[in-house]
């Protein structure tokens, strides 16, 4: 989503264009997603200038983050109590951290700055970097009373009493310290335990500030980052800044399979434009050539996450069961329910191909019974399992969404379902299958979701209260498709393949099992 809430600086080169002197292409120097409360002034330029004095030359995007994040109210207090920077790896967020910490020590007079990271080795590396900057600048080095190297207590103390301390996060780390500023590095791995330990340290401080810096969310580990991101997006959608949060995110907004072929509202994951949008350091410390090598090596999901900023963000606990209510679903559980012949099976796979599910649907009185047959890691087991189910049940059909990650299995599934030839000596006949494979198109997906939702509302679904299906429904979200919607695959933080497969299996009970028609809608399948 392209949601820049501030105007681009006229002094900066346009995103994706060469510099005035014919230099390389530059990444976006201001983020696609940004919100911040208004400010009367900023201490950011002081931080930029001090960093330069210490030999740290900051990119325009790093300077922009500092100016926005260090905005001040008319009374001189911070406009933003919390500042979050979400940017792909290797872009240079460490430079922002170092500049902010130098300012806090040598200009801001912050008595205690706590720098924490998920791992001790990351915190120690940050300590070494800023130590080198300070030692390399005589005017700063002479103000240092001590550099302390005791393991777990690395710190820098000034003669005037200010302390910068480096710690690894844990449930108890940070307790007992009253910090003026908390720097939370690697914030994509940040949960409630660490926040509960660190945030109360700032309660007694007159003008505290907390900085979160990291890359795209990685599911259930990104609890706090997801919380901050929801607040930012809600503020942007409402057109009213969050009163205490400055949030800046560099990420591409990638095509989905429902996009028309001429879609200009979303980004092609294979394009340079997507890279420039998500990586402000292109032209400074990253090159398009290096990124192209990453794209050739990483999985599509890994590349989208690590280089294009496509994260997975867990839902807030209170947001669970947002589409179908927990009480409504549990009321449909029937321990004695079973599907009657003919049944339909459906297969679904997660975008990163880490898990797959097979579900079955069949009539059960006036309702349709849905059940998770298998939900396992990986996909190498799927084809053989399909064959075994076909031999046992002789189902009406197997359903696969051609535009989903499971679509790549269709060819192998059909081959595995072939009846062993006995009398077909001349080979002219089409191979016979134990069961038809119905290939869903976009319009079918929309119909299937709508039918499933309506069936639940009308109490015409029955299930066994299985944990994989209940968990998927608890974390499920909608993905808008024009006037309709489908199940969202991105950013839900749970494996929704049981839900998708159950939805598609129910649809398969009435689907046309003849050879599918050629797709007539101009959908482009971007996976």
Description:
It is built from 16 helices and 19 strands. It folds into two domains: 33-253, Rossmann fold (3-Layer(aba) Sandwich), CATH 3.40.50; 320-420 and 430-508, Nucleotidyltransferase, domain 5. It starts with 32 loop residues before the first strand and ends in a 19-residue tail after the last helix. The protein has a nine-stranded mixed beta sheet with strand order 1-11-4-10-9-5-8-7-6, sandwiched between helices. It has a six-stranded mixed beta sheet with strand order 16-15-12-13-14-17, sandwiched between helices. The chain has 527 residues and is α/β, with parallel strands linked by helices. α2 (60-69) packs across α3 and α15 (467-475) packs across α16.
């Amino acid at each position: 989503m392209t949601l820049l809430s501030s105007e681009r600086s006229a002094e900066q080169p346009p995103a994706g264009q060469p510099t005035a002197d014919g230099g390389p292409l530059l990444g976006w120097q201001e983020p696609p997603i940004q919100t911040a409360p208004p400010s009367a002034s900023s201490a950011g330029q002081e931080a930029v200038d001090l960093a330069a004095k210490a030999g740290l030359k900051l990119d325009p995007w790093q300077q922009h983050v500092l100016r926005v994040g260090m905005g001040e109210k008319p009374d001189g207090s911070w406009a933003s109590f919390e500042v979050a920077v979400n940017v792909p790896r290797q872009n240079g967020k460490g430079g922002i951290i170092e500049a902010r910490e130098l300012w806090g020590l040598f200009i801001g007079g912050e008595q205690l700055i706590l720098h924490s990271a998920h791992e001790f080795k990351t915190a120690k590396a940050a300590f070494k970097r800023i130590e080198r900057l300070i030692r390399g600048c005589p005017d700063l080095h002479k103000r240092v009373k001590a550099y302390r190297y005791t393991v777990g207590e690395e710190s820098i103390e000034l003669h005037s009493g200010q302390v910068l301390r480096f710690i690894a996060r844990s449930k108890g780390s940070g307790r007992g310290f009253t910090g003026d500023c908390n720097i939370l590095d690697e914030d994509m791995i940040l949960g409630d335990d660490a926040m509960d330990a660190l945030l109360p340290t700032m309660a007694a401080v007159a003008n505290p500030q907390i900085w979160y810096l990291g890359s795209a969310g990685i599911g259930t580990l990104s609890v706090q980052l997801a919380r901050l991101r929801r607040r930012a997006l809600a503020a942007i959608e409402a057109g009213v800044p969050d009163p205490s949060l400055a949030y800046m995110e560099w990420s591409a907004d990638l095509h989905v399979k429902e996009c028309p072929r001429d879609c200009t509202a979303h980004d092609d994951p294979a394009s340079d434009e997507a890279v420039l949008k998500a990586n402000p350091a292109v032209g400074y410390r990253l090159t398009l050539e290096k990124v192209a090598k990453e794209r050739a090596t990483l999985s599509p999901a890994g590349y989208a996450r690590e280089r294009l900023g496509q994260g997975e963000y867990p839902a807030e606990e209170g947001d669970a069961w947002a589409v179908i209510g927990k009480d409504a679903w549990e009321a449909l559980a029937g321990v004695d329910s079973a599907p009657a012949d003919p049944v339909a099976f459906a297969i679904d796979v997660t975008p990163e191909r880490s898990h797959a599910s097979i579900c079955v649907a069949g009539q059960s009185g006036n309702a349709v019974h849905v059940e998770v047959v298998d939900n396992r890691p990986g996909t190498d087991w799927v084809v053989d399992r399909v064959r075994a189910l076909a031999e046992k049940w002789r189902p009406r059909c197997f359903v696969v969404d051609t535009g989903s990650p499971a679509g790549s299995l269709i060819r192998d599934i059909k081959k595995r379902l072939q009846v062993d030839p006995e009398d077909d000596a001349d080979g002219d006949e089409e191979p016979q299958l134990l069961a038809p494979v119905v290939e869903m198109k976009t319009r079918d997906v929309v119909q299937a979701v709508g039918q499933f939702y309506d069936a639940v509302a009308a109490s015409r679904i029955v299930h066994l209260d299985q944990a994989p299906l209940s968990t998927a429904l608890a974390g499920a979200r909608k993905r808008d498709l024009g006037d309709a919607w489908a199940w969202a695959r991105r950013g839900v933080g749970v494996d929704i393949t049981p839900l998708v497969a159950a939805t598609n299996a129910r649809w398969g009970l009435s689907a046309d099992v003849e050879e599918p028609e050629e797709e007539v809608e101009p959908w482009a399948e971007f996976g």
